[in-house]
Description:
The structure is a homodimer. By secondary structure, chain A is an alpha/beta fold. Chain A starts with 27 loop residues before the first strand and ends with a helix. In chain A, the strands form 4 sheets. The first copy, chain A, has a 5-stranded mixed sheet. Chain A has helices at residues 42-46, 52-56, 64-74, 86-98, 114-121, 164-172, 229-242, 249-259, 262-285, 307-316, 340-354, and strands at residues 28-29, 81-84, 105-108, 126-129, 149-152, 179-182, 205-210, 223-227, 289-290, 297-301, 319-320, 332-336. Chain A contains 11 helices and 12 strands. Chain A is globular, with a radius of gyration of 21 Å. The model of chain A has no long low-confidence stretch (mean pLDDT 95). Chains A and B meet through helix 2, helix 4, helix 5, helix 7 and helix 8 of A and helix 2, helix 4, helix 5, helix 7 and helix 8 of B.
Amino acid sequence: xxxxxxEKNIRKVVPYTPGEQPEExxxxxxxxxxxxxxxxxTLYKAMSELDSDSLRKYPNPAAHDLVKSLAxxxxxxxxxxxxxxxxxxVLGMSFMTFFNSDREILFPDITYSFYPVWADMMRIPFKEIxxxxxxxxxxxxxxxxxxxxxxxxxxxxxAILMSREDIIRIIEASKDSVVIIDEAYIDFAPExxxxxxxxDKYDNLLVVRTFSKSRSLAGLRIGYAVGNPKLIKYLNDxxxxxxxxxxxxxxxxxxxxxxxxxxxxxxxxxxxxxxRERFTDELKELGFTVxxxxxxxxxxxxxxxxxxxxxxAAKKEGIYxxxxxxxRINDYLRITIGKDEDMDRVxxxxxxxxxx
Amino acid sequence: xxxxxxEKNIRKVVPYTPGEQPEExxxxxxxxxxxxxxxxxTLYKAMSELDSDSLRKYPNPAAHDLVKSLAxxxxxxxxxxxxxxxxxxVLGMSFMTFFNSDREILFPDITYSFYPVWADMMRIPFKEIxxxxxxxxxxxxxxxxxxxxxxxxxxxxxAILMSREDIIRIIEASKDSVVIIDEAYIDFAPExxxxxxxxDKYDNLLVVRTFSKSRSLAGLRIGYAVGNPKLIKYLNDxxxxxxxxxxxxxxxxxxxxxxxxxxxxxxxxxxxxxxRERFTDELKELGFTVxxxxxxxxxxxxxxxxxxxxxxAAKKEGIYxxxxxxxRINDYLRITIGKDEDMDRVxxxxxxxxxx
Lengths: 356, 356
């Protein structure tokens, strides 16, 4: 198409490419870190609340019922919780709100690929801090002047967990900027790994979570942040200035219902963690290097077989992994933990295809 | 609360204040232009598609099924439709994408109050073009250098419709910028009032719609835009750079279902239009000035009674109107058209309270 006159005056960005969402039903989809188990059944009972009156009217702009149930669940006051349309929305709003100085924000060079995309789009200067040789975050590298810091814990796609002590060092060295810890996968890490409790102590710490992984609700798009009431207030001010009603009624009602079923939540997580451990051992037996995972996926490489090759061969068999064609990690595959039978098929596929 | 060190480096905005969403069930809520009739019943049948598998997985990032049903409904190709979390999200993304020059964007001085909020937040220079004495838009005033134009048609809160000819004059005078016509209320206007068909002819025209008014689905948060494929592509690029999955699965599935029931849609609109005409006549009989409405609300003032007074007195009776404490319009009340019995109660209240 030829250029139009108005094109010179608009914002052109190179868009983020999300993982493939193939529509076929019989594939093994291990490429976007979804939960293989469905959401809590409590959700279906709550669906009857989606009546004519609740759908024709605007939702509560503060998504009060959902915020309240999250606040109660985490034992914090409601003015310390912010909700958004997936953690992407929460993180995007946070970038817009908190990363507003002329100084560079910091995040790892190998990390969630949306961070540089948001920074580019919002024209926030940034510096990517290299991970160590063994793909770990060295906290010292983050103790420098900055306009803000964002780190996923566990990191993605490495799945490696950072210690609370290391995070505390970073927060204490950055008192005049906001430190965001993106805990999208923290529910799959050992107890006590989260730093959410530290939001009480550190007014510049924001902890972000999502319903898309451990809560089995990627289809509903719910993310949230917990922090000091003042951080949450600034975040809400920006949210209300962009879209007063981001959370629709199904998200509020069904999200709240799912939070109430803690038993199912813990049970599915423990199942996934145990499948992850078993699958990791099996991959190692086949000669793979597997980074120590605290998430619902593993990051693995084989010394003799290219990741691209495995990725393509698996896809032909209807098995979807994620491969990042990026420096340092293009030998690796990110494999979501599915059900036992899914992982069995992966192991069988690898053995059969590569005579391992 | 005292100031924190990080506060100097963040974005502080004066947030938009949405209309009140009182929680009591027995009130008459005529303050946020919701539809008094519920959404099409086809929606409840579609709800069974919200199964475990569709909720645990990410939705289709392009919201394909919803986009396809909108494209079919309007007789356009799918690359000409963009969907978002309410028309606020669609408009917000459009501001971010298309209003990116150093020139002032133009919109009426009396209009949807979110426009200056978005411009402020995104640091877009803007000029508010005064409506005429009788609250109309003079197209000549918009035929000047600009970085973009946004006009609701019918305008809000005046409810007054602009002619196609006037809109065409504005579009033709602004070939190097994008003109957004916000048709949130167009379904309540006479047939042929929409300029959506002109998106075929004018590559710089974007028409925005919402499910929140005529489709009775404010609770689901669905808005959309129709325009040239290149406009839609740029919009999607920005969307994918902010949040790949803005539309959740309930929005996609239920939104699509509602589109399929055109008969119910037309029937409720015609009911609302006829109640609006009857209510307008009755207000006039009570001495009110009522601007000619092509929307699902009326904008009315009484020569002898202050709007603030009526607003407060009505609220005490459980009747909610919208009042804008702004120059030129603070004598007016915006009253949403509800069911017959709601409007009867309004008339009775006015007669009884003010001896009209």
